[in-house]
Amino acid sequence: MTVLRLDGVSKLFSEAAAVDRVSLEIARGEIFTLLGPSGCGKTTTLRLVAGLERPDAGEIVLRDRVVASVPRRTFVAPHKRNLGMVFQSYAIWPHMTVFENVAYPLELRGGRRVVVRERVARVLELVGLAGLETRAAILLSGGQMQRLALCRALVYEPDLLLLDEPFSNLDAKLREQMRVELKLLQRRLGVTVLFVTHDQIEALSLSDRIAVMQRGRVEQVGPPRELYDRPASAFVRDFLGQTVILRGVVKELDTMRGTVTVAMEGSLAGSTLRGRSAPDASLAAGAAAHVAIRPEDIDVTISATALPEDNALVGTIDALLFVGDRYEARVALGGEQRLLLLLPRARECREGQRLQLGFPPDLVSVWQA
Amino acid sequence: MFCSGVLAVVAFGVLFPVLLVVAESFQVAPPGQPAAYGLDGWRAALSEPGLRGALLNTFTVTFVRQLLSLPLAILIAWLLARTDLPGRHGIEFAFWAAFFLPTLTVTLSWILLLDPEYGLVNTWLARLPFVGKGPFDIYSFWGIVWVHVVTGSLTVKVILLTPAFRNMNTAFEEASYVAGATTFRTALRITVPVMAPVILSVLLLGTMVSLQTFEVEQVLGLPFRFFVFSTMVYDLLVTRVPRYDAATALAVLVLVAMLPLVFMQQWATRRRLFTTVTGQFRNQPHRLGRWRWPALLLLLGTMLVVLVVPVAFAVLGTFMKLFGFFHIADPWTLGNWKTVLTDDLFLRSLRNTLVLAVGTAVAAVLVHSLIAYIVVRTRYAGRRVLDTISWLPFTVPGIILGLALLWLFLGVHVLRPLYGTMALLVIAGLISGMPLGVQIIKSGLLQLGSELEEASRIVGASWWTTYRRIVLRLMAPTLMAVGMITFVGAARNIGNIALLATSANRPLSILQLDYIAQRKFEEAVVVACIIMFISLVGALVARFLGLRGSVG
Fold it and tell me: Is B286 domain-assigned?
């Protein structure tokens, strides 16, 4: 069942489109993430859903109810949408206690005093804030404020929970912890979540589905694995995770198997790499191409006398950085081409060592240059 | 060492005169007689009906002023800062300009409209059927309150509250909408309570200013023997056989009443830190919908009352043969301007005002920037004390400061030759302008950040070179603005210098007061208009230099 549908929604800020014809569907019970660099329109999209901004085009439907529609000239005010929202700054009302912050939305809904008390206690218990009811809200720590903001957004069982970069004000340790807590909580309550972040780790680890946004548009929608393994565009490929990119010229196309063979250039002239063709790439023999692979997918073998095998290159470690749980190795492929690899700590590595780098063909993608 | 020197001079200038006032309240011998100490002054202040009445009047006027102006100011600030009200920027600017109208000028304008006999509003209303006589009387308690509300009380609150409302983290309100509250409910339950510390702070500042009121009561209260403490002090000192002990005792009582306000104000200022949070989204104005036009009407009406009417009628008044008499045949003349502009007395006063204003402005920029720099940038142990002392004059009513300086300059032998010179008035202006000047420069320095200076030191510049080439250059607009503000303040200053001015150093502001005392309203209003003109031009220049009403 669809909880939220955006249909060609646009928002202009002084002529520039902050959100540009965005269409999305969010199913009940899923964590759906809008991911992108700052200024890509993800927060504006969230605010359009919340009703804090009015769209300039398109339609927003919440559970079969049109809440904003430019063609139909309808707009439902935010307080009539029954949404929960956690703000980036938490927006914990400083003049209220913990209890009052959470009770406020219930009071607005005309809840009886006893019921309000009971439900507030239950939701505070859920996130581990029980017993802090009478504490002044501004005396809470960052992590506690975040939990409180979550309580306040969940206590009235909204149709959709909106999260606007909720972890960005926490330190790294707490952020990881809250991530796990949030996911567990969501699985337990089954609430539908629309989550906005610029942090790919957060997006990949929390989401059921992700929409990657850039310049107001949705670049690709899909589950995290799919986006990571099969990015539909160069932007998605480079935004999510690390990518090694090598330049070359298309030598041979195998349309039957969907593979492309690329002849390397410069110092790597003579070697070839084979991989699958990227989506929408129109490649012809002789055209310039980019060969892309995730660094962790490269098969690294240490061998002093390495002769390149099929679909492999030879390189030398020219800088080795020990970063604790692993090595970061900069590998020179002869001449100007270099790439950064992560090597396990267990490996015996040293600078100047020769490596053989195997490129598994089904993990290599070939893009138009 | 240098910093301690500055602290000592500032402390001497601010604290010593006040202590002198306290000491003098126990000195009961008449002037010229050997000193004798007793409690007669205090007895008089606490028991004589006239004196006690003046004290009571001070608090009543203050209370009623605040009660009427605060809710209206909150509403206006909210409309200007948080809604899509048409023309809000222009209206905010109008309030800013109105803030700079000299109180006495505005008072004269309202006399034209609300005088019980010949006031225009009254004569118009009298023509209506069933209205025998105009119902308004400016020479009354409510007349005084009205003039106060439409001058300082309202405008200062609006220009202080509007930026504060604008800087509030919008997420507080948005969280409330999303939680299910309407705009009205959110304003009541979230916006105003979240802003409560700021509102309290502004209210306390307003109350302190109210307690210092002088010229309105001097003009409107005297005709019906209505005194507040400041006019009573003035009365005790100048018009009869001077009663220094009673006057100073009265002054000390008001100073004591100020103390809790000072502490509460400091407390409220600390509390409001949490209301502005960084990392906020763009400020999305509320849509007023069908309330747009009623709200606009309300604000335009307010502007009419606080700005348009006072300016228009002050100017109109200068062209009247008999001030306020609209009904006589051929009431208009250019004679007043001719009389005043060719009067030797006026020209001397104008020169005095210009010397006073320029001198005070220059001195203020130097002294205030020095104090601000020490407070913000150095690790000097006494910088907090210096900060507090520089703020103290705000709580000292002008008339008390004047009195204190009078004692200082008449009492200390080496300083006596300065009495009657411009230097004395400049010192008074410097001290009374100190709180605002230091605050503005301080916030400018804080925004500047210390890295810019440190970078200059690192590349090899000395402290003095850095101060000249980096700090002063970057701070130039702020310092100019402070200079302009002080210039305006000095030009219109009355309360501070009413007791200090003599015929030798009398500036325009005191000249107009003297004209009024002699019932020469025609001349007074011409002088008032000239002061208003100086004020508005100075305010515009300061605004152009980048000053905004974000102080306090």
Answer: no
DSSP lists the bridge partners of residue A65 as: A62
Whether residue B283 is contained in a domain is answered as: no
Mean pLDDT value across residues A50-64 = 92
Which chain B residues are closer than 8 Å to A53 by Cβ?
A: 284
The domain of B258 spans: 2-29+49-275+297-327+339-544
Task: Please write the tens of the pLDDT for every residue from B303-317.
Answer: 999 999 999 998 988
Q: Is the dihedral of CA B473, B477, B480, B485 positive or negative?
A: negative
A285-327 confidence digits (pLDDT tens): 888 899 999 988 998 888 756 566 678 888 889 899 988 888 8
Mean pLDDT value of segment B244-249: 84
DSSP H helices, chain A, are 42-50, 98-108, 113-127, 142-154, 172-189, 200-206, 224-229, 234-239
The single-letter DSSP state of residue A241 is: S
Is B212 domain-assigned? yes
Q: What is the DSSP letter of B68?
A: H
Instruction: Identify all chain B residues contacting A12, using CB atoms and an 8 Å cutoff.
Output: none
Question: Where in chain A are all domains bearing CATH 3.40.50.300?
Answer: 2-239
Q: What pLDDT score was predicted for residue B75? A: 92
Closest CA to A299 of A247, A255, A233, A361: A361
Q: Give yes or no for B384 touching A (CB within 8 A).
A: no
Tens-place pLDDT, residues B444-495 = 888 777 777 777 777 667 777 777 777 877 788 888 888 888 888 888 888 8
φ, ψ (nearest 5 deg) of residue B358: -65, -45
A39 touches chain B (CB under 8 A): no
Looking at the partner chain, which of B178, B185, B274 has a beta carbon nearest the beta carbon of A83?
Answer: B178
Architecture (CATH level 2) of domain A2-239: 3-Layer(aba) Sandwich (3.40)
| CB < 8 Å to B274, chain A | 94, 138
- In chain B, the percentage of residues whose pLDDT exceeds 90 is 14
> Considering only CB atoms, which chain A residues are within 8 Å of B181?
79, 104, 108
Mean pLDDT of chain A: 89
pLDDT of residue A308: 64
Judge whether B179 is closer than 8 Å to chain A, CB to CB.
yes
Instruction: Answer yes or no: is B492 within a domain.
Output: yes
Query: Which of A62, A93, A152 is most worth mutating to test chain B (most B CB atoms within 10 A of its CB)?
Result: A93
Write phi, then psi, for A313 (nearest 5 degrees): -125, 160
Mean pLDDT of A184-194: 92
CA angle A101, A105, A106 (to 5 degrees): 105
Picking from B181, B274, B278, the nearest residue to A108 by CB comes out as B181
Cross-chain Cβ contact A85/B175 below 8 Å: yes
Selected residues 90-119 of chain A with any CB under 8 Å from a CB in chain B: 90-91, 93-96, 104-105, 108-109
Is B270's Cβ below 8 Å from some Cβ in A? no
Q: A244-368, which class in CATH?
A: mainly beta
- Name the closest residue on chain B to residue A110, using Cα atoms: B180
Chain segment A135-182, per-residue pLDDT in tens? 988 888 888 999 999 999 999 889 999 999 988 888 888 888 888 989
Residue B496 clears pLDDT 50, i.e. is over it = yes
Considering CB atoms only, which of A50, A52, A105 is closest to B180? A105
Tally of domains within chain B = 1
Give residue for tokens 């520089």.
Answer: B390
Interface contact flag, B193 A93, Cβ < 8 Å = yes
CB contact under 8 A, B180 and A53: no
Q: Is the pLDDT of residue A219 over 50?
A: yes
The answer to whether residues A90 and A148 touch, using CB atoms and an 8 Å cutoff, is yes
Among A209, A242, A241, which residue's Cα sits nearest to residue A223? A209
- Domain CATH code at residue B128: 1.10.3720.10
Which tokens sit at B6? 């500055």
